[in-house]
Amino acid sequence: MILHENNEARLLNIIRWGNNPFKKFVSTSEIKEELDLVKSRDNLIRNIKSIIKQNNNFILPIIGDVGSGKTHLFWALKNNLYYYNTFYISLVSVYRKFFYNIYSEFIENLGIGPLKFVVNQLCENWGALEKKYGFFHVVDVEKVKQTAIKQLSTKYCEIEAETLIDAINGIITHQLDPYKKIEAERWLLGKLMDAKELSTLKLSHDLHKGKNAYILLRLLIENSKLGTILFIDDFEKIIKIMKPQDDAPEEIFDPSWLYGTEKSPNDIASEKIFTKIIQLQKIEGLRIIITLKSIESLEQIKKKYQDFDSELVPLIKEPLFLKNFNEDDIFDFYTNTMSKFYNSIECNEFTQVFEDRYFPLNKLALKNIFDHTQGNPRTLIKILIKYFNELIDDEEDLDLILKKYENFDI
Asked: Is pLDDT of 230 > 50?
């Protein structure tokens, strides 16, 4: 008994030094999340993986309430899909410089090694291994460029010639000109370049120009050995899909007073973004997962696709649903999180030494938290953070704090 009490005191002291086991569980796309999804969501992951393996191009809607764990789902997929370059965007943050921002996220996740491999393979496909003179390997750079132009202008006939030539020059310079390799690599990585640097590389624009970012993104994805998954969160935020309500209250200010019956700037911006998303779907091998809050939103998206490009409607898969935790999930989530915490503080023995495996909480308190939150992961995690912060502040002893959560008097 004394041993249990000593271990409990050790853990409480560690927590009261400011260590909150749940402080990192407000999931974001920047902070890597190592914890897998709870057991009730195993089938969801299996279904998503099955769709990914069986299809090269699609849009897969994931529908879940606010706080249901859509960003956490992204990390679970990224941790499980080892042979795919899985990257995340929120339309709110990328709608300006759309293709450049998507390209930047793609490159950051792909890494410099795979990037070099893909551009090397492209050059080889364009004839970079052919010898120009006799025994010594001297590359006919001009012939490589002409081969590339012929291949790409046929395949990407809708892309402007200047944009294709920029992409070809940037790739070939990186691979075949050792004196300009570093500058060309900066261009491939999407760095901002001035006119003098671009002129040295015989380029018209850097990748901040959307058309250049788009064609390079397309070349890299379509020639990569890794599959590519783009996870677009909160699809409704930029795409204006909801019809105005017939019984909506009268507006004090009517936008039509300024814009007449024409589309407002917001409508025009929304349609531009939607057009760019349709361009993304033309990239072979790009699988797109979108998150939404309701089935009604999905129906409006399908209608927009019907208006813009009806041929793409069949690419929209039947939605999958991200449900709240069930009661068993909260206990698994809690114990798994605490195990990760014990590992981080090098006290793995804590997983087995307590009489109550949920210490410094207990089963009743966890059940009350579940009932109060109805299993919503975000709300549930916020309450767990609050509980451990109260322990850290140490305004009351453990029994008094725990009693509040057992009665849920907080």
From this structure: yes
Q: Is residue 219 exposed (0-12), middle (13-18) or buried (19+ Cβ within 10 Å)?
A: buried
pLDDT in tens, 239-257: 654 444 444 444 444 555 4
Contact partners, residue 29, CB within 8 Å, separation at least 6? 71, 74, 88, 89, 90, 233
In eight-state DSSP terms, residue 237 is: G
Tracing tokens 């261009």 back to the chain, one arrives at: 187
Please state, in angstroms and rounded to a whole number, the distance separating the CA atoms of residues 388 and 365. Answer: 13
pLDDT, greater one: 271 or 337 = 337
Contact of 200 with 183, CB cutoff 8 Å: yes
The span from the CA of 392 to the CA of 71, in Å, is 28
> Which tens digits make up the pLDDT trace of 195-220?
999 999 999 999 999 999 999 999 99
The dihedral of CA 1, 355, 384, 35: what is its sign?
positive
Q: What is the pLDDT of residue 397?
A: 84
CA–CA distance, 317 with 319 (Å, rounded to integer): 6
Q: In this structure, what token pair is assigned to residue 391?
A: 């322990």
**CA nearest 292: which of 69, 28, 63, 72?**
63
The one-letter amino acid at 83: Y
Alpha helix (H) residue ranges in 281-362: 295-308, 327-344, 350-353
SS3 content of the chain, % helix, strand, coil (to 5): 55, 10, 35
First to last CA, the chain: 31
**In this structure, which amino acid lies at residue 375?**
G
Instruction: Describe the strand order of the beta sheet including 58-64 as a list of residue ranges.
Output: 84-90, 227-233, 286-292, 58-64, 320-322
Is 367 buried (19+), middle (13-18) or exposed (0-12) by CB count in 10 A? middle
Q: Count CB atoms within 10 A of the CB of residue 206.
A: 21
Other C-beta atoms closer than 10 Å to the C-beta of 84 total 19
Condensed to tens digits (0 to 9), the pLDDT of residues 280-333 reads: 999 999 999 999 998 998 998 888 888 888 888 899 999 999 999 999 999 999
